[in-house]
Amino acid sequence: MSTAMNFGTKSFQPRPPDKGSFPLDHFGECKAFKEKFLKCLRDNNFENTLCRNESKEYLECRMERPQIKNLSSRRSLRSLEL
């Protein structure tokens, strides 16, 4: 039985990220917003409904980053609400 692997037969097909997924913030461009959001969560016993404004600010910061603009179109935050 041959166990040779043929790497040339299959090609990788990239796909766009899922809705709401962002690349990692490698450069820390939104770190201040993230820290503010996390502090709010800790101060409010992780009740995320009490930190909606901080969450919104962080999400807006992430959507404004140049490396993200090419990955997803700008969306209204209302379209992300449940």
UniProtKB/TrEMBL annotation:
List where in the cell it is found: Cytoplasm
Positions of the CHCH domain: 30-64
Gene Ontology annotations for the cellular component aspect, listed alphabetically: mitochondrial intermembrane space
Q: Which InterPro entries match?
A: CHCH, COX19, Cys_alpha_HP_mot_SF
Name the major location.
Answer: cytoplasm
Q: PROSITE patterns under this entry?
A: CHCH
Task: List, alphabetically, the Pfam families matched.
Answer: CHCH (PF06747)
Task: Name the domain of life.
Answer: Eukaryota
**Which keywords are on file for this protein?**
Cytoplasm, Disulfide bond
| One Gene Ontology biological process | mitochondrial respiratory chain complex IV assembly
- Tell me yes or no: is Cytoplasm among this UniProt entry's keywords: yes
Q: Does the keyword Iron apply?
A: no
Family designation: Belongs to the COX19 family.
- What is the protein named? Cytochrome c oxidase assembly protein COX19
Starting at the broadest rank, the lineage of the source organism is:
Eukaryota, Metazoa, Chordata, Craniata, Vertebrata
